[in-house]
Design a protein that fits this description.
Order of helices and strands: HEEEEEHHEEEHE
Number of strands: 9
Distance between the termini: 111 Å
Shape: globular
Largest sheet: 6 strands, antiparallel
Strand content: 25-35%
Helix content: 25-40%
Number of domains: 1
Structural class: alpha+beta
Length: 208
Protein backbone atom coordinates (compact mmCIF):
# COMPACT_ATOMS: atom_id res chain seq x y z
CA UNK A 1 0.00 0.00 0.00
CA UNK A 2 1.14 3.50 -0.72
CA UNK A 3 1.60 5.70 2.27
CA UNK A 4 -0.52 8.80 2.19
CA UNK A 5 1.37 12.06 2.48
CA UNK A 6 0.52 13.96 5.62
CA UNK A 7 -1.01 17.37 5.16
CA UNK A 8 -0.19 20.34 7.34
CA UNK A 9 -3.23 21.54 9.20
CA UNK A 10 -3.42 25.16 10.39
CA UNK A 11 -5.47 25.30 13.52
CA UNK A 12 -8.09 28.10 13.75
CA UNK A 13 -6.41 29.61 16.80
CA UNK A 14 -3.08 29.85 14.99
CA UNK A 15 -4.81 31.32 11.92
CA UNK A 16 -6.41 34.05 14.01
CA UNK A 17 -3.08 34.82 15.69
CA UNK A 18 -1.38 35.06 12.29
CA UNK A 19 -4.02 37.43 10.93
CA UNK A 20 -3.78 39.69 13.99
CA UNK A 21 0.04 39.69 13.84
CA UNK A 22 0.09 40.66 10.16
CA UNK A 23 -2.59 43.33 10.65
CA UNK A 24 -0.79 44.85 13.64
CA UNK A 25 2.57 44.98 11.89
CA UNK A 26 0.98 46.46 8.76
CA UNK A 27 -0.84 49.11 10.83
CA UNK A 28 2.31 50.09 12.72
CA UNK A 29 4.34 50.25 9.50
CA UNK A 30 1.59 52.32 7.87
CA UNK A 31 1.63 54.87 10.71
CA UNK A 32 5.38 55.14 11.15
CA UNK A 33 6.75 54.47 7.66
CA UNK A 34 4.37 56.70 5.70
CA UNK A 35 5.08 59.82 7.78
CA UNK A 36 8.35 60.77 6.17
CA UNK A 37 7.77 64.40 5.23
CA UNK A 38 8.82 66.50 8.21
CA UNK A 39 8.91 70.27 7.89
CA UNK A 40 9.95 72.43 10.82
CA UNK A 41 10.14 76.14 10.09
CA UNK A 42 11.14 78.93 12.43
CA UNK A 43 10.39 82.46 11.30
CA UNK A 44 13.10 84.56 12.91
CA UNK A 45 15.80 87.04 12.07
CA UNK A 46 19.28 87.55 13.49
CA UNK A 47 19.42 90.29 16.06
CA UNK A 48 21.83 93.20 16.00
CA UNK A 49 20.69 95.08 19.07
CA UNK A 50 22.03 98.61 19.35
CA UNK A 51 21.38 100.79 22.41
CA UNK A 52 22.40 104.42 22.32
CA UNK A 53 21.33 105.47 25.82
CA UNK A 54 18.57 104.97 28.35
CA UNK A 55 16.70 101.85 29.44
CA UNK A 56 15.55 100.69 26.03
CA UNK A 57 13.71 97.44 25.28
CA UNK A 58 13.46 95.46 22.07
CA UNK A 59 11.28 92.43 21.43
CA UNK A 60 10.75 89.87 18.70
CA UNK A 61 8.26 87.07 18.13
CA UNK A 62 9.44 83.57 17.19
CA UNK A 63 6.93 81.25 15.52
CA UNK A 64 7.82 77.55 15.54
CA UNK A 65 5.82 75.33 13.16
CA UNK A 66 6.32 71.56 13.09
CA UNK A 67 4.48 70.14 10.10
CA UNK A 68 4.66 66.41 10.92
CA UNK A 69 5.60 64.45 14.03
CA UNK A 70 6.23 60.72 14.43
CA UNK A 71 8.53 58.34 16.33
CA UNK A 72 12.01 58.40 14.83
CA UNK A 73 11.65 61.82 13.23
CA UNK A 74 14.90 63.73 12.69
CA UNK A 75 16.05 65.65 15.74
CA UNK A 76 15.71 69.38 15.30
CA UNK A 77 17.86 72.09 16.83
CA UNK A 78 17.71 75.79 16.05
CA UNK A 79 19.60 78.64 17.68
CA UNK A 80 19.03 82.41 17.56
CA UNK A 81 21.85 84.72 18.56
CA UNK A 82 21.12 88.02 20.30
CA UNK A 83 23.86 90.65 19.91
CA UNK A 84 24.47 93.66 22.14
CA UNK A 85 26.41 96.37 20.32
CA UNK A 86 25.95 98.98 23.04
CA UNK A 87 28.16 100.27 25.84
CA UNK A 88 25.82 98.90 28.52
CA UNK A 89 24.94 95.30 29.40
CA UNK A 90 21.43 94.00 28.72
CA UNK A 91 18.99 91.48 30.18
CA UNK A 92 17.78 88.69 27.87
CA UNK A 93 14.58 86.75 28.53
CA UNK A 94 11.72 84.94 26.80
CA UNK A 95 8.15 83.85 27.46
CA UNK A 96 5.92 81.35 25.70
CA UNK A 97 2.77 83.13 24.56
CA UNK A 98 0.90 80.09 23.29
CA UNK A 99 1.31 76.59 21.91
CA UNK A 100 -0.85 74.11 20.01
CA UNK A 101 -0.21 70.37 20.12
CA UNK A 102 -2.39 68.79 17.41
CA UNK A 103 -5.89 70.10 18.27
CA UNK A 104 -5.10 71.21 21.84
CA UNK A 105 -4.28 74.91 22.23
CA UNK A 106 -2.64 76.43 25.29
CA UNK A 107 -2.44 80.16 25.98
CA UNK A 108 -0.21 81.18 28.87
CA UNK A 109 -1.08 83.78 31.47
CA UNK A 110 1.67 85.92 29.94
CA UNK A 111 0.12 85.35 26.52
CA UNK A 112 -3.29 86.51 27.76
CA UNK A 113 -1.68 89.69 29.05
CA UNK A 114 0.07 90.21 25.71
CA UNK A 115 -3.25 89.74 23.86
CA UNK A 116 -5.17 91.84 26.42
CA UNK A 117 -7.42 88.87 27.19
CA UNK A 118 -8.91 87.63 30.44
CA UNK A 119 -6.88 84.88 32.12
CA UNK A 120 -8.75 81.57 32.34
CA UNK A 121 -8.55 79.16 35.26
CA UNK A 122 -6.92 76.45 33.12
CA UNK A 123 -4.20 78.74 31.73
CA UNK A 124 -0.61 77.80 32.56
CA UNK A 125 2.28 80.14 33.17
CA UNK A 126 5.02 80.24 30.55
CA UNK A 127 7.34 78.26 32.83
CA UNK A 128 4.67 75.61 33.52
CA UNK A 129 3.96 75.20 29.82
CA UNK A 130 7.68 74.91 29.12
CA UNK A 131 7.86 72.00 31.61
CA UNK A 132 4.78 70.37 30.07
CA UNK A 133 6.24 70.49 26.56
CA UNK A 134 9.48 68.95 27.83
CA UNK A 135 7.96 66.10 29.83
CA UNK A 136 4.30 65.30 29.12
CA UNK A 137 4.67 63.94 25.58
CA UNK A 138 6.85 61.25 23.96
CA UNK A 139 8.22 64.02 21.73
CA UNK A 140 10.26 66.52 23.75
CA UNK A 141 10.26 70.24 22.99
CA UNK A 142 13.03 72.17 24.71
CA UNK A 143 13.44 75.95 24.96
CA UNK A 144 16.42 77.62 26.62
CA UNK A 145 18.65 80.67 26.69
CA UNK A 146 22.40 80.39 27.26
CA UNK A 147 22.39 83.24 29.77
CA UNK A 148 20.17 86.06 31.01
CA UNK A 149 22.80 88.82 30.77
CA UNK A 150 24.32 90.02 27.51
CA UNK A 151 27.63 91.76 28.05
CA UNK A 152 28.27 95.18 26.60
CA UNK A 153 30.48 95.81 23.57
CA UNK A 154 29.49 92.94 21.25
CA UNK A 155 28.29 90.50 23.90
CA UNK A 156 26.04 87.65 22.76
CA UNK A 157 23.61 85.07 24.14
CA UNK A 158 21.70 82.31 22.35
CA UNK A 159 18.09 81.20 22.41
CA UNK A 160 17.68 77.57 21.34
CA UNK A 161 14.76 75.35 20.34
CA UNK A 162 14.91 71.55 20.16
CA UNK A 163 12.37 68.93 19.07
CA UNK A 164 13.14 65.23 19.62
CA UNK A 165 11.03 62.05 19.27
CA UNK A 166 13.20 58.89 19.45
CA UNK A 167 12.02 55.84 17.53
CA UNK A 168 12.58 53.69 20.63
CA UNK A 169 11.45 55.57 23.73
CA UNK A 170 10.59 52.48 25.84
CA UNK A 171 7.01 53.74 25.93
CA UNK A 172 5.37 51.70 23.18
CA UNK A 173 1.80 52.41 24.29
CA UNK A 174 2.44 56.15 24.53
CA UNK A 175 4.25 56.23 21.17
CA UNK A 176 1.40 54.31 19.52
CA UNK A 177 -1.27 56.58 21.02
CA UNK A 178 0.42 59.82 20.00
CA UNK A 179 1.63 58.41 16.67
CA UNK A 180 -1.95 57.43 15.81
CA UNK A 181 -3.30 60.77 17.08
CA UNK A 182 -0.75 62.71 15.01
CA UNK A 183 -1.53 60.69 11.89
CA UNK A 184 -5.29 61.14 12.34
CA UNK A 185 -4.95 64.88 12.97
CA UNK A 186 -2.74 65.41 9.92
CA UNK A 187 -5.08 63.34 7.73
CA UNK A 188 -8.03 65.51 8.77
CA UNK A 189 -6.06 68.79 8.71
CA UNK A 190 -3.47 68.40 5.92
CA UNK A 191 -2.65 72.13 5.76
CA UNK A 192 -2.16 72.55 9.51
CA UNK A 193 1.11 72.12 11.37
CA UNK A 194 1.09 69.40 14.02
CA UNK A 195 2.79 71.69 16.54
CA UNK A 196 2.90 75.48 16.71
CA UNK A 197 4.56 77.57 19.41
CA UNK A 198 4.73 81.36 19.69
CA UNK A 199 7.56 82.78 21.80
CA UNK A 200 8.41 86.38 22.70
CA UNK A 201 12.07 87.30 23.10
CA UNK A 202 12.92 90.42 25.07
CA UNK A 203 16.15 92.37 25.57
CA UNK A 204 16.22 95.28 28.01
CA UNK A 205 19.22 97.55 28.43
CA UNK A 206 20.52 97.64 31.98
CA UNK A 207 20.97 100.99 33.74
CA UNK A 208 24.46 102.36 34.39
Amino acid sequence: MKKQKSKAVLRPSRLIFLIVLIASNTFAWFIYATKIDTNISVHVKSWNVVFEAGENTVTDIVNLDVDDIYPGMDNYDYSITAYNRSELSATFSYIILEARILDKRYVTTEGRAEYHEEVLSEDLTSEALKSKLASDYPFKISLAISGSTIAKDNGTQNFSIGVVWPYESNQDDVDTFWGTSAYTYKSMNPTNSSITIKIKLTITQNPN
